[in-house]
């Protein structure tokens, strides 16, 4: 059984009277890769700052190995941080960048101890032979590895990573996901990772913590978070989801669009209103006459390994992912196996997600090169920066 290493108990944070973290209760286990996942402004970076000692909570306590550390400064915690901007020293080579923190250790380490530790880290981050290279001549991925090695060379028990892959291109980002997991397992320490990218969270984590508006929405393994979301926000944020209103007629029987379907969930009151989640990949397109439901294709987008197909069912638009295209205007049927329905209790997020009526508009916005963040988004980004 994993040993608890860090605990946040009743932690709240407010900036100028605005609550950023609201009564957060969570623990982090030793040697665990845990990801804080959520949209911008949800409180995930604030949580990281509290653990790192850069911010004192407005209320609540922070414990490390059962010792309260609220007022322990960052340099006295067994924690180190890797930021999105690596902040490497351009006038120092790779070896010197990694060794920098070791020169501040008291009592001072010998030159041999420093050399041995740096070479050990170069081996772990796969940069052996780069020790004399200027950091300005490294690729983005190599610079990130130097930043990780510099953070790990002091042998912290916890490494905090604040969206460190954000500046990398897609292919390199995927490669570095594997590297980070490998490094965490080789070092056998706790990694606490912050991201808004659900794919990163699912690919690397032992545990995922989904956050929104300063509150934890769900904690679980990547499989649990994806397959068993607890509310409409989690279902929508983790992957794509069609979320429709329904009623639980009885255990393992759900009603949507006025029709009853077999499902695998139970434990609800008779005729209890529920949210029904159906993942796009769990829907099979069949001829209209064979469908459990029938609808009209309104949009199709080629995504490489599959097509994203938008289908109108009685005014509610679903996303279906299929390797076979269906032309716009086609009448189709769909089939869903009982385990393709996931039933959730109603929440404050009910009715906010899952309808793809604005699908085309969203694609247009993503492709709009003139798009700039709103004033509120810019303020939140500035507010969440680390202070030095």
Commentary on this structure:
The protein has helices at residues 44-52, 94-99, 111-124, 140-152, 170-187, 198-204, 222-227, 232-237, 359-366, 375-383, and strands at residues 4-15, 18-29, 33-37, 59-64, 67-68, 79-82, 158-162, 190-195, 207-212, 215-220, 242-250, 253-256, 259-262, 272-278, 284-286, 293-302, 307-313, 316-322, 331-335, 342-345. α3 (111-124) crosses α4 (140-152). A 6-stranded mixed beta sheet has the order 6-7-8-3-9-10, sandwiched between helices. Strands 13-12-11-14-20 form a 5-stranded antiparallel beta sheet. A 5-stranded antiparallel beta sheet has the order 15-19-16-17-18, with no helix packed on it. It has 10 helices and 20 strands. β16 and β17 form a beta hairpin. The model is unreliable at 360-388 (pLDDT under 50). The longest helix has 18 residues, at 170-187. It folds into 2 domains: 4-227, Rossmann fold; 240-358, OB fold (Dihydrolipoamide Acetyltransferase, E2P) (Beta Barrel). The two termini are 37 Å apart. The protein is an alpha+beta fold and 388 residues long.
């Amino acid at each position: 059984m994993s040993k608890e290493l860090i605990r946040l108990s009743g932690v709240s944070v407010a900036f100028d009277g605005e609550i950023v973290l609201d009564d957060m209760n969570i623990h982090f286990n030793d040697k665990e890769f845990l990801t804080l996942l959520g949209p911008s402004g949800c409180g995930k970076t604030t949580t990281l700052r509290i653990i790192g000692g850069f911010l004192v909570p407005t209320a609540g306590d922070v414990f490390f190995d059962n010792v309260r550390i609220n007022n322990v400064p960052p340099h006295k915690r067994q924690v180190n941080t890797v930021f999105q901007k690596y902040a490497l020293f351009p006038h120092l080579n790779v070896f010197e960048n990694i060794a920098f923190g070791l020169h501040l250790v008291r009592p001072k380490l010998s030159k041999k101890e420093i050399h041995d530790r740096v070479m050990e880290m170069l081996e772990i981050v796969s940069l052996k032979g780069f020790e004399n290279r200027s950091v300005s001549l490294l690729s983005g991925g190599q610079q990130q590895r130097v930043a990780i090695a510099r953070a790990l060379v002091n042998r912290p028990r916890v490494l905090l990573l604040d969206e460190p892959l954000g500046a990398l291109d897609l292919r390199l980002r995927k490669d570095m996901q594997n590297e980070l997991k490998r490094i965490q397992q080789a070092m056998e320490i706790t990694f606490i990772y912050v991201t808004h990218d659900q794919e990163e969270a699912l690919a690397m984590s032992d545990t995922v913590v989904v956050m929104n508006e300063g509150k934890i929405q769900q904690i679980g393994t990547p499989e649990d978070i994806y397959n068993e979301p607890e509310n409409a926000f989690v279902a929508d944020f983790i992957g794509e989801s069609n979320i429709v209103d329904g009623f639980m007629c009885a255990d393992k029987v759900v009603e949507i669009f006025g029709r009853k379907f077999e499902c695998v969930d139970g434990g609800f009151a008779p005729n209890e209103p529920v949210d029904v989640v159906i993942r796009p990949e769990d829907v099979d397109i069949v001829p209209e006459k064979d469908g459990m439901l029938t609808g009209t294709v309104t949009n199709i987008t080629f995504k490489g390994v599959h097509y994203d197909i938008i289908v109108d069912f009685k005014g509610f638009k679903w996303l279906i992912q299929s390797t076979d295209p269906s032309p716009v205007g086609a009448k189709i049927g769909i089939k869903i196996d009982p385990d393709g329905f996931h039933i959730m209790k109603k929440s404050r997020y009910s009715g906010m997600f899952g309808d793809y009526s604005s699908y085309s508009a969203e694609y247009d916005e993503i492709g709009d090169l003139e798009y700039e963040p709103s004033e509120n988004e810019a303020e939140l980004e500035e507010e969440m920066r680390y202070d030095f």
